[in-house]
Amino acid sequence: MDVRDYIDSNARVFFDQLKAWLAIPSVSADPGHHGDVRSSAQWLAGHLAATGFPTVEIWDTGQASSPGQPAVFAHWPAQDPAAPTVLVYGHHDVQPVEPLDEWHAPPFEPVERDGQLLGRGASDDKGQVLLHTLGLRACLAASAAGAPPVSLKLLIEGEEESGSPHFADLLRSRADRLSCDVIVISDTTMWAADVPSMCTGMRGLIDAQIDLRGADTDVHSGSFGGGVPNPLHALATLLAGLHDDQGRVTLPGFYDAVLPLTDAERALFARLPFDEKAWLADAGDSQATAGEAGYTTLERVWARPTAEVNGLWGGHTGPGAKTIVPSQGHAKVSFRLVANQEPADIAVALREYVAARTPPGIEATVTFGGPGVRPAFSPLHSPGVQAAKRAMERAFGREVLFTREGGSGPEADLADILGAPLVFVAVGLDEDRIHAPNEKVEMTLLLRGAEAVAYLWEDLAADPAGITATR
Amino acid sequence: MDVRDYIDSNARVFFDQLKAWLAIPSVSADPGHHGDVRSSAQWLAGHLAATGFPTVEIWDTGQASSPGQPAVFAHWPAQDPAAPTVLVYGHHDVQPVEPLDEWHAPPFEPVERDGQLLGRGASDDKGQVLLHTLGLRACLAASAAGAPPVSLKLLIEGEEESGSPHFADLLRSRADRLSCDVIVISDTTMWAADVPSMCTGMRGLIDAQIDLRGADTDVHSGSFGGGVPNPLHALATLLAGLHDDQGRVTLPGFYDAVLPLTDAERALFARLPFDEKAWLADAGDSQATAGEAGYTTLERVWARPTAEVNGLWGGHTGPGAKTIVPSQGHAKVSFRLVANQEPADIAVALREYVAARTPPGIEATVTFGGPGVRPAFSPLHSPGVQAAKRAMERAFGREVLFTREGGSGPEADLADILGAPLVFVAVGLDEDRIHAPNEKVEMTLLLRGAEAVAYLWEDLAADPAGITATR
């Protein structure tokens, strides 16, 4: 029985299993659901053991002072000790479901309708985690082997939707167990059901609050206006100066480390059927595109770094007028980063920028929200990406294009801490309404995803030197 | 008996009368004290009648839908029908007294201490109103006349500390009764007890709220950041652009109507003993001066127009980071104006400026708080100012210098609606703690003020053609 036959004939069982898992409301952001997050981990552990993984463990995260939600680890070694080791990353926690009254069916009572499976977590990320066990069983069935062709590890997190607060610590403390040659991420999307694609990178992030202070108190603008510095003028000047008239970020050295987009990747992006009107509608009905000169919209949001003012406040913000020179101004800013920018370097540059642009009589402080998130990037011609492309193309019967992801996640931690390249294999769609009411997944895409990973394990096993050489 | 002898021998009675009036808590901003505001008007009406004014009236203000606090009007015609008519403006309402625990004595139980009279309203403005009746009596006693040398009108407002909401309407509806050749304002300050001075102008004001809107909702900065316009960037650019690098306001035509400071006025300002360090301390411990290049601090805050951002807000302003492109940004701005700028012209210029600088995809609205306040200005060499200068110099025995007032008030309405020039005759000091706990007035300054107005009436009567020619 070949891979596809196995998958098609086991689809019914697979979807019933997924629905059982989706019924567990593993909302990690809600302390009232932390018991459910543990039940979800236990369900998955049972499922992985039943699949045949000889090692299945539930890993608690955090410490007593800051307890976390459990991750699930499983390992099934290959028979051939020379086979490469693959670590699959996903998560079993889900987003909150509010506003509940916008769901057409209860979010934790999954239903099938017109080839879609609806329910919280169907696409993000339980469906995309579970396709791995189906794919693995198909791989085993097709080869009639007693073990996978690659040494397969799974790490399925329980806090991704809560910002993965303990994830880096978990990776560091379990680095030995998690060692691998390549990391497969199944938590993103492809371009469209009929345009299979692979993500090759995510942007990094660093955020800060800028606080400016002038006088000790607000002062009367009649008595003092025009004679003393106004921190809101300084703030506006500082924030306005973050971009030049080409939409480029002006922090000193901001672009120094940026890995330029290659002509090949730009050409591949350009082949994606991009509907700007629909994209603007998704962007809260934005009325125009904007951004760095010389780049397309997709390039801007996927592969170019940004500076964004996320919030600002100061002075009188209530009804009516108050003729003051305010004493303070505040802004929250964040920077999306791309390979190979380092959050720590950008932090230094921001401090320098603010210090250089703070006028006399104004005191400025810059406070960072944390160390930031590194960008993640897998070159198009890296062996892992090429192997996954071949596997996806075999499963979908079409050319696979490339995308990136403009957001930021724990993926870069995986690559950095474990020292292995990332490969994004995912079959979610942007229209899956993840994080929103009526989340769904296309059922056939889950099956094609299972097929793709089955082929991928075979492909990676066929050329172990290719992938291990990239470490 | 000459003017000074009369005043000195009646000082005790005068201060006792003032203390009785100060004991009435006429806080116009507090509805709980509106009965006291009326009592204060009644007290003043009785005092003016007792002084000899043949016409004394309490004028209600506002309408049934928006009732106001009462003003007091009094008129004592000169015997000579060719004598000029003078209108004295002041107010009998007072500021709130909070924080009460910072007062060394109860605010409405006035006490005398070391030549100072302490109590709410002592300087702002009851003391400066009452000096007019003492001055008038002295004038009458010195000339042994049965009527003042000028036709004297008093209009003492009851809502000045609440923003004079009904004052312009009152002036318009009573313009015939209030017609005059010159308006004497006794509601400002002089430079110092030993540096008598006269204010010659106040700045005007117009305020607005600027609202910028991008997308319909905040959008995720990972998915859309760098590709859609951010209204906070637009807001920062717009506000930062309000000033050029010389601190000049960039609104189109902003300075076109500005009456330049004369060399003579600048030279007189420069003779004032200005202590920048003390001024900065008063300015909420500001750490530096700032403003329009080419002007001194006093010139900047008294005689140059400004643009001030009074408040701004938008996006995420709570704890922590939120990686959004916000949908909206807001700012409150105000412009202090000088002669001969028109608030309506500045409003047009602001609308033009915002429209020209709003980038594609952002929608901007500008909402004005009202029609604004016109600047007031009395040229140094106008007959009224020169007459008052002579009278002040005679009373104080020193040269009188000139100041201006950076704030804005209903004075310009008086000049505009009644069509008469303003003359500021006042003996308050900046250190009188008006609007603050422990308000006080220097008792000898009130007496010298009374003396000055007595001389002023004589002076104006001696040259009626001079003042009436300026109308």
Structural write-up:
The structure is a homodimer of 471-residue chains. Chain A is of the alpha/beta class and 471 residues long. Chain A has two domains: 294 residues, Aminopeptidase, CATH 3.40.630; 119 residues, Alpha-Beta Plaits (2-Layer Sandwich). In chain A, 35% of the residues lie in helices and 22% in strands. Chain A contains 16 helices and 22 strands. A six-stranded mixed beta sheet of chain A has the order 1-4-8-5-9-20, sandwiched between helices. The first copy, chain A, has a four-stranded antiparallel beta sheet with strand order 14-16-12-17. In chain A, a hairpin with a 2-residue loop joins strand 6 and strand 7. In chain A, helix 2 packs antiparallel against helix 4. Chain A is elongated. Chain A starts with a helix and ends with a helix. In chain A, 56% of the residues are buried. The mean pLDDT of chain A is 95. At the A-B interface, strand 13, helix 7, helix 8, helix 11 and strand 14 of A face strand 13, helix 7, helix 8, helix 11 and strand 14 of B.
CATH superfamily of the largest domain in chain A: Zn peptidases
How many β strands of chain A by DSSP?
Answer: 22
The helix count of chain A comes to 16
Average pLDDT rating of chain A:
95
CATH class of the largest domain in chain A: Alpha Beta
List keywords for this structure.
homodimer; 471 residues; alpha/beta; Aminopeptidase; Alpha-Beta Plaits; 2 domains; six-stranded mixed β-sheet; four-stranded antiparallel β-sheet; 22 strands; 35% helix; 22% strand; elongated
